[in-house]
TrEMBL record:
InterPro entries: Bact_solute-bd_prot1, SBP. It comes from Eisenbergiella tayi. It holds the Pfam family SBP_bac_1. This is Lipoprotein LipO.
Length: 538
């Protein structure tokens, strides 16, 4: 009879590991009397009843002053509260994608990846389907999906299954990537905020020629960028609403009246390239931009050398103590007076497959419980997403909390360093809801600045843009093959056009080239994806 009961308990488990999973809040000793010990407790702690060490690979933020999470306080808390034994393997974010790709190609898989797996859809056979286990082992996520059904839609693959768990940062903001401009320099040269491409050119010329940083040297860089963040935010001035950034999921396309357009073939893009060449020819853009990393641009920013630069959220990451000198540059008006901005799909950031469990994991239920533990209470979410009380934040005693960001604690250059040194931050897998975010009082100048730009940016937001979601693995593979060559071509073509100019002959050669690199098929695949996602979201 005992054997029959054990077999019955195994039926319907997400993964059969040779042991049943039962309700338990007791210790290992209390469950050891069961004839067949249970490897994973469905509730209560410790999570595991067997001796097993999990290996978790995670991305390390560039603003993390320590690196791997192995010896950090929040990791010690996980061990103490859950009893889990975990080997934490940190990979710097700059090389994370490459190293993870090598691991997958070699079949050298950890139990879990915390961080996006490159080309994830192509490797689904290496990961568990999690649908049947979510309700039982991650009730926090099940509840979250009830509150935010659109995020669940974004996580479901075309086969109807979920293979990864999300990181969600619902902060009420949909205006992320933008250009920052040095207001102090504007004042120094006696000019107004530019609204058009021509006005921006005049401002950048003044930055170059009038020594706005006042050091008596011609060391100003009017417009700086780096190899993964270039000029795409200037495209609004030429009637284009899209990104060409290297890490963007849907490069080179925009949506017009429900149709996907490959904008590098448009006359507007030709005009955009001519403008960029004009900036370059007049010495207004960073000559090292095409080859430098973000850290190189930051070094110039903290030396008070930057006039305009692209960033995602807080400019103090790039310009340090000079952040008070900067404000945000709205998308420029095109010849019809229209500004175009591509907003985030959600009021915050969503990474659908941030926490993935590989088939090498013997006990996937335990890793689901780890995810649920990190998200099971506001206090835990606060610890793993922001850091400890008294260093990263303080309790105001009125139901709100404040980030200790103005000024930042001693030993840190920015709040991003505080957050990513003391917590998982945006490299973790947290379900941060709008209700959670509402408990943060807006007190620091950096946050007030970020909040202030939401409304004017969203006033420029286009209504049609590519939604976040999952595509068919075969479509993803085909798209990636196309983009490998297309991106390499477009990077070279952009650099060549900016530095050496573009004319009608070069443009015609370009139009032939993109067709050879399957731009038409790429556009077709993007159209199919867009149509399917719009249907799912009805």
């Amino acid at each position: 009879m005992a054997t029959i009961l054990i077999i019955g308990n195994l039926t319907g488990c997400g993964k059969t590991n040779g042991t049943a999973v039962v309700e338990s809040s007791g210790s290992v000793e209390e469950t050891a009397s069961v004839e067949v010990p249970n490897a994973v407790n469905k509730t209560g702690y410790p999570i595991m009843n067997v001796d097993y060490t999990f290996k978790i690979v995670h991305s390390v933020a560039s603003t993390d002053k320590i690196g791997s999470w192995e010896n950090k306080d929040f990791v010690q808390q996980i061990a103490e509260d859950t009893g889990l034994k975990i080997e934490w393997v940190g990979i710097p974010e700059a090389s994370y994608n490459d190293q993870v790709a090598i691991m997958i190609a070699a079949g050298d898989l950890p139990d879990v990846f915390i961080g996006q797996v490159p080309n994830f859809a192509q490797f689904l056979d290496s990961f568990y389907k999690l649908d049947d286990m979510i309700a039982d082992y991650t009730p926090s996520l099940a509840d979250f999906y009830e509150e935010y059904p659109a995020i669940k839609v974004a996580a479901v693959f075309p086969d109807g299954s979920t293979y990864g768990l999300p990181d969600v940062q619902m902060n009420g903001y949909r205006a992320g990537k933008c250009l920052s401009i040095n207001q102090t320099w504007l004042d120094a040269v006696g000019m107004e905020m530019p609204n058009t491409a021509d006005e921006l050119f005049d401002v950048l010329m003044a930055f170059k020629e009038q020594d706005p940083n006042g050091n008596g040297q011609a060391d100003e860089i009017p417009f700086s960028f780096y190899k993964d963040r270039k000029f795409d935010l200037l495209m609004s001035a030429f009637g284009i609403a899209g990104y060409d950034a290297k890490d963007y999921s849907f490069p080179y396309v925009q949506i017009k009246n429900g149709k996907v357009e490959f904008y590098p073939e448009t006359e507007n893009y030709y005009n955009y390239l001519q403008y960029l060449n004009k900036l370059y020819a007049n010495g207004l853009v960073d000559p090292n931009g095409f080859i430098q990393e973000e850290v190189d641009m930051i070094a110039k920013g903290t030396n008070n050398q930057l006039g305009v630069f692209p960033n995602y959220s807080y400019d103090d990451i790039t310009v340090g103590d000079y952040a008070k000198d900067y404000t945000y540059l709205l998308p420029l008006k095109d010849e019809e007076g229209i500004r175009r901005f591509v907003p985030s799909s959600y009021a915050g950031g969503v990474i659908a497959n941030q926490f993935t469990i590989t088939k090498n994991c013997k006990y996937p239920e335990a890793m689901l419980r780890l995810y649920d533990y990190m998200n099971g209470s506001f206090e835990n979410r606060l610890t793993f997403d922001w850091g400890p009380e008294g260093v990263a934040w303080k309790d105001n005693g009125d139901g709100t909390i404040s980030k200790l960001a103005d000024p930042v604690p001693d030993g840190y250059n920015s709040y991003a360093e505080v957050r990513h040194t003391l917590s998982m931050g945006v490299k973790g897998a947290t379900l941060w809801s709008e209700a959670d975010n509402a408990r943060f009082a807006i007190t620091s100048d950096r946050e007030k600045k970020y909040v202030a730009r939401q409304e004017p940016f969203l006033a420029c937001a286009v209504e049609e843009f590519m939604p976040d979601g999952q595509n068919y693995p075969e479509a993803v593979q085909e798209i990636n093959v196309i983009l490998t060559e297309l991106r390499a071509y477009m990077d070279n073509f952009l650099a060549e056009s900016v530095m050496n100019g573009i004319d009608d002959k070069k443009w015609e050669q370009h139009l032939d080239a993109v067709k050879k690199f399957n731009s038409e098929r790429y556009t077709q695949l993007m159209q199919e994806y867009y149509d399917r996602m719009k249907e799912l979201m009805k």
